[in-house]
Specification:
With 130 residues, the chain is mainly α. It has one domain (13-124): Glycogen Phosphorylase B (Rossmann fold). Helices cover 56% and strands 6% of the residues. It has a two-stranded parallel sheet with strand order 1-2. Helix 2 packs across helix 5 (89-106).
Length: 130
């Protein structure tokens, strides 16, 4: 490790500063995490992720193509996958760009709003009148 930098704030410009300073993000949680918004934020910034195959992580990484999944609670696999990606700048770039493209195309706020509107329209139109 060449250096350590602590980011006491993680919002707005400070969040973008963080994403500009890292090549890869890994949060090796040991418990089920059903959300993983930080994976989408990292991918949207073009940063690939290395995450355990638990909770929502496999689905997110599969959907975005912006990272690598490893078996949970296996330090050896985490080390192996981090070494694999950190030693391969082309892999970092490929996964980062794919994640960025897919988050913006498939998982954007606009896309989510369109999907919710469609669900609401179908619900309203199919609901019996009172």
């Amino acid at each position: 490790m060449k250096s350590v930098k602590i980011y006491p704030e993680f919002q707005g410009e400070k969040k973008m500063e963080f994403f500009n300073d890292v090549d890869v993000i890994s949060v090796p949680v040991r418990k089920y995490d059903g959300y993983g918004l930080y994976l989408l934020e990292a991918n949207a910034a073009g940063i690939p992720v290395v995450q355990p195959a638990t909770g929502a992580f496999p689905e997110i990484v599969e959907r975005t193509g912006g990272g690598i999944i490893y078996s949970p609670d296996t330090v050896e696999e985490l080390v192996s996958e981090l070494n694999k990606i950190l030693k391969n700048k082309e892999l970092i770039s490929t996964l980062g760009e794919k994640g960025k493209r897919m988050v913006r195309q498939e998982l954007s706020l606009g896309r989510m709003s369109d999907g919710l509107s469609e669900v609401y329209d179908k619900t309203i139109n199919n609901a019996p009148c009172k």
